[in-house]
pectinesterase (Hyaloscypha hepaticicola), 390 residues
Amino acid sequence: MARNFFIQALLLFFTTLLSFVSAWDINNHNDRHGCQGYSQDPLEGCDRERTIFVDVVNPESKYKTVQSAVASLPNNTDTYIILIASGNYTEQVNVTRQGPTYLIGQTAHPTQQSYNTVNIIWAAIAIPGLDNAFTSTLTVAPNLNASLTGSGPTGFAVPAGTPFGCIDFRTYNLNFINDFAPYSDDPSLALSISYANGGFYYTGFYSYQDTVYVGKLGNAYIKDSEVAGETDFFYGFGTAWVESTSISLRSCGGGITAWKGTNTTFPNAYGIYIVGSNVHAANSSLNITGKCALGRPWNSQMRSIFAYTYLDKSILSTGFIDWNPSRYNNYTVQAEYKDYGPGYNVTGREVAKFDVQLTSEQWAKYSSPEKVFQYPDGKFGNTGWIDWSI
Ligand SMILES: *[C@@H]1O[C@H](CO)[C@@H](O)[C@H](O)[C@H]1NC(C)=O
Ligand SMILES: *[C@@H]1O[C@H](CO)[C@@H](O)[C@H](O)[C@H]1NC(C)=O
Ligand SMILES: *[C@@H]1O[C@H](CO)[C@@H](O)[C@H](O)[C@H]1NC(C)=O
Ligand SMILES: *[C@@H]1O[C@H](CO)[C@@H](O)[C@H](O)[C@H]1NC(C)=O
Ligand SMILES: *[C@@H]1O[C@H](CO)[C@@H](O)[C@H](O)[C@H]1NC(C)=O
Ligand SMILES: *[C@@H]1O[C@H](CO)[C@@H](O)[C@H](O)[C@H]1NC(C)=O
Ligand SMILES: *[C@@H]1O[C@H](CO)[C@@H](O)[C@H](O)[C@H]1NC(C)=O
Ligand SMILES: *[C@@H]1O[C@H](CO)[C@@H](O)[C@H](O)[C@H]1NC(C)=O
Ligand SMILES: *[C@@H]1O[C@H](CO)[C@@H](O)[C@H](O)[C@H]1NC(C)=O
């Protein structure tokens, strides 16, 4: 009897341990891929307690838009997952909640962005009197004020006391498209993230101008993804780390990057870091050889670094350029470290006036996400939201 009880207790202990060890984990490839795959019951392989299914095609589905699913989530610190069925969703998605929020797309190829089957599409351009924020396909910010770009060297003055938004927002296998016009005209954002931390994996962002906006206190980690644009298509005030990503040039305008630095009471690393990525013409019929600039200073304290990145022949022989009228000064950081490819013209870089080649000591200051992502108070190492398994 006692022995039977002991064995049963032992069994219970191990099953509990097993269920604990094997709790569904977004960072676990098998768990995530299992949920993203196709099956009769779309939630098979998902964490049923915390996952909402969105399907634009099935008329019976409770949620037909991504925004309706996002809006159903409580503003608390609990984790939620939204699984999105293959299809085109014509809508803007705004995420204001604080808790971990993961948007994942159905796919049979979860490790290849080019096979994504979910497109979230909007078409908007900034019009006079209306901030760029209103154009974005996806916005992650605690409220509208936090997401405003504003103008002038310091942009919109976000009111003091504005709370931080999502501490861990992520997308996997989704494309965000702003297809207002097939050329750059005015700001047309696909992503806007401010006062929030966001990880974007196997994700596509497509527009022509100001495609990816990383606003104030925004931290964006983009990996194994694709960003396509023409003019200043990575811009902002916050911090972006873009790794192993395809950067597709749809033409040349302004620069690939344009950032505004901020004077803080603490040291900051606000800026954009493009690392181990591939910069290339969108297709071979474009006539952009030697014409695209790596970036230009949106304000004098712009910080933009391309490191270990392949540059195709579209890139200007002298790399970065100045703004017109001139803003480049000795506070501006427009730099490269170990870039390569036909767009890395050694003699061009030697005569460049607005492009600096970093020494290994200089690069070491910025050489990992831990060194650049900060908490709102300036403390470095705000990386708990990064999926390191990718
Ligand atoms: C969410 O909750 C936080 C903390 O209570 C609060 O500061 C914030 O304004 C809330 N956001 C929304 C959109 O209600
Ligand atoms: C879905 O959107 C993509 C990207 O805009 C487009 O190429 C495709 O034709 C659309 N598919 C349908 C079924 O509308
Ligand atoms: C998202 O936010 C923008 C800017 O506030 C607003 O124009 C838009 O209507 C919002 N969309 C949704 C679906 O909440
Ligand atoms: C947004 O900012 C403006 C200008 O600072 C301010 O008047 C307004 O009260 C703010 N709105 C919210 C909801 O904080
Ligand atoms: C090449 O890319 C440009 C910019 O996106 C596009 O307008 C054009 O249609 C593309 N051409 C081909 C042949 O795909
Ligand atoms: C920050 O401080 C520097 C040095 O004082 C100054 O040149 C620059 O204009 C300031 N930038 C902003 C955005 O206030
Ligand atoms: C590219 O340039 C070539 C040679 O100048 C020209 O024949 C061709 O039409 C141009 N293509 C485009 C898309 O402008
Ligand atoms: C930056 O440039 C200003 C003049 O434009 C000069 O006075 C200052 O010494 C320079 N600072 C450094 C660190 O080179
Ligand atoms: C490399 O840059 C130099 C200096 O700007 C320029 O003269 C040369 O034509 C460039 N070479 C190529 C292949 O673009």
